[in-house]
């Protein structure tokens, strides 16, 4: 099951239209299929069945239980990843490079979820059989910190915290070119690229508010190491925003230069630090994880 908390940025949107965009990254459902989910009661707003043309309101809560497009079932597999923090309610882990977060069409196994099922006895059931405990995701080629919920109560609280921007996330990235200002903010809406549905882009058409703050850590001859803090959590946000200001993330096969596709590591983007209040006991938690070896090796290479 997926739980979505609506805020003022999405208020006024039609339910079916909003869900098509929200579910596209995971399922790429057609609008007619989403409408059938709503009609058959797989979607509820504030625990009530509504019509496809329902206009969303601020503070609405959507519960989605999408029928799986394939008969997939996540199985436990021994996948290598580091657990940074764990208690009875949550896990904070360091996701390695080249690891998909959860099973889907084209990636039925060898995902982070398969590894979680192998290492952890109890995970939140809200994400269903394919996404147990998954509160948020990182792209396959993005490394670093992720939070996983062990209980449904923690999962619901974390989802709400993410929607309300109450989880502080810092990323490190190597980008092309030398950024002149020491700090900056990119405030530009992000939506689906009409020319390539796999990509996102800065656009005013069917887009959502997105804001990224960046700070220069080190400048090199042809690259810059930066820290990014995101106020919103749009798909590919940092990658899209840095490409928008003509400083794409090094190694990004989707938004950077053609020559970057030869870099097997993928984008040099790392979820470095996270700060939030524990969803159950409200104690402040601040955690960080080191850069992967390949990232540090690339820094040594470009600083010569």
Automatic annotation (TrEMBL):
Organism whose genome encodes this protein: Spiroplasma gladiatoris
Catalysed reactions, as listed in the record: a uridine in RNA = a pseudouridine in RNA
Gene name in the database record: rluD
Residue ranges constituting the RNA-binding S4 domain according to the UniProt record: 13-80
Any GO BP annotation: enzyme-directed rRNA pseudouridine synthesis
GO MF term (any one): rRNA pseudouridine synthase activity
UniProt-listed Pfam families: PseudoU_synth_2 (PF00849), S4 (PF01479)
Protein name (Swiss-Prot/TrEMBL): Pseudouridine synthase
SMART domains reported for this sequence: S4
Highest taxon in the source lineage: Bacteria
Residues annotated as the enzyme's active site: 139
Upper taxonomic lineage: Bacteria, Bacillati, Mycoplasmatota, Mollicutes, Entomoplasmatales
